[in-house]
Amino acid sequence: MMQALCDDLRAEYKELADLVASFGASQWQAATGFFHWTPWDEIAHLLYFDETALQALDDADAFARDARTLTERTTVRGEAISAIARSAYGHLDGPALVARWRLAFAPLVDRLTAFAPRDRLPWYGPTMSARSFATARLMECWAHGQDVWDAVRQRRPVHARLAHVAHLGISTFAWSFVVRGLEAPPRMPFVALAGPGGAPWTWGEPASSERVSGPAEDFCLVVTQRRHIADTRLRVEGDTASRWMAVAQCFAGEAAMGPEPGVRRIDADGR
Predict the structure, then answer these.
(1) Where are the beta strands (DSSP E) in 36-187?
(2) Are 236 and 245 contacting, i.e. CB atoms less than 8 angstroms apart?
(3) What is the CB-side half-sphere exposure of residue 210 using CA atoms within 13 A?
(4) How far apart are CA 205 and CA 233, in angstroms?
(5) Architecture of the 2-151 domain
(6) Structural domain boundaries in the chain
(7) What is the pLDDT of residues 178-219, one digit of tens each?
(8) Which of 20, 105, 190, 221 can bridge 227 by disulfide, Cβ–Cβ 3.0-4.6 Å?
(9) Does domain 162-247 have CATH number 3.30.70?
């Protein structure tokens, strides 16, 4: 199972790296819809945490020390994570940045392949299973990659590996409420998504009156907070489903809110 997941993770990394490798200087500095980060910022962010992920797997003690330092910088000193990444890699231009990123993510995927799915790995906060660790890296790459694809007004390909992001969106149903101090509803809505080529992906009880249905890509855009639900083709039925889609958050950290309606709407051709 880890081999197939890691193959998908490697493919996700490579697709984004190949995209930005063709960028000129102006594209590297284009504003994305994610807090006005540039594609350079997006890749620097991925690089920073891929390098710390490698450290977590190779030297848990050093990782723990550096994780405490990072927490102090962000929570005590109030430094933004984007500024921390810029301080680490600001001497690199776009091509050099992506070259260094390739040197981080390739061995990271190789290392993850060697673990069993349930092996526990150190990370920020509680340890994670190797399967969750790899899935989270894939989701991060896909989400920040979406920012880059949007910035250059290109329509990205949709692959079957998007199922990993969709499943993470499902598994964080309760988390999306709890992180906001809200009581999670007792039952998750039925979710019926159309994967690439129309392949059906379903979760939950089909008889439920609470439902979320539509393209898998749109669901992933909502749970990664890259689109507002109003700017997607998703159909939402029921109070619980509506409340969930308003706060869905498939990533860790503090409670965050996605874009307002219309802010990140992209037409079908990418423009």
Answers:
(1) 120-121, 128-129
(2) yes
(3) 15
(4) 22
(5) Up-down Bundle (1.20)
(6) 2-151, 162-247
(7) 999 999 999 999 999 999 999 999 999 999 999 999 999 999
(8) 221
(9) no
